[in-house]
Amino acid sequence: MYRQLREHVWWIELSGVNAYLVDDDGTFTLVDAGLPWQRESVQQAVDEVAGSMDAIDRVLLTHYDLDHVGTLARLDGLDAPIYIGRADHPYLVGEESPPWRNHKGAFQRVVGWLASAPDGPVETVDDGDEIGSFTAYHAPGHTPGHTVYASADCSVAFLGDLVREDDGELVPSPSVISYDTDEVHASIRDLADTLPPFEAACQGHGVPFHERGRERFVACADRVGR
Hints:
single chain, seven-stranded mixed β-sheet, 6 helices
């Protein structure tokens, strides 16, 4: 199931997790990709919005987690560069395994066999990099390489799992599923001061917001304690 959030932004509503599509000035961007068994839902949404998977020009990954990268090796016709934060890149391409000594890293290792490394090129993303109209913001805590992507032109920020929607509000990623909760809170505080204005707040879990996105994110930062 998918629905349009704003003129150039679509929400792919998967079971328990979100992916997104953006028409970024004529180039289609897929943001995150769902669990391995959600391939058909992602494929159908892309086919109906963009015409075919061949129309996808880039994939932006907010972080390495099975529910955000799981379909990448299974999407028929995907032939586009994939971007992911530098610290999460080795996990996605299989060069390294997440650390056993971190509770979240241990879980990633246990379930990692369910997803194959993508076949196409995977590019590393650093803080401040520009990809199309998007600027990348390194926002560690949920994972070491967690990255937020914001576009003033499209008036949208893809917040990944730095925050989630709960009862109509944005709340920080909880400790049970994060590498470091203190870093989560620090990233939220930092981004509240640095993100450009945006209407659509698109997070990985819960219902995204089509308006007042930055205002809602700043309110979350205020509750964390700026």
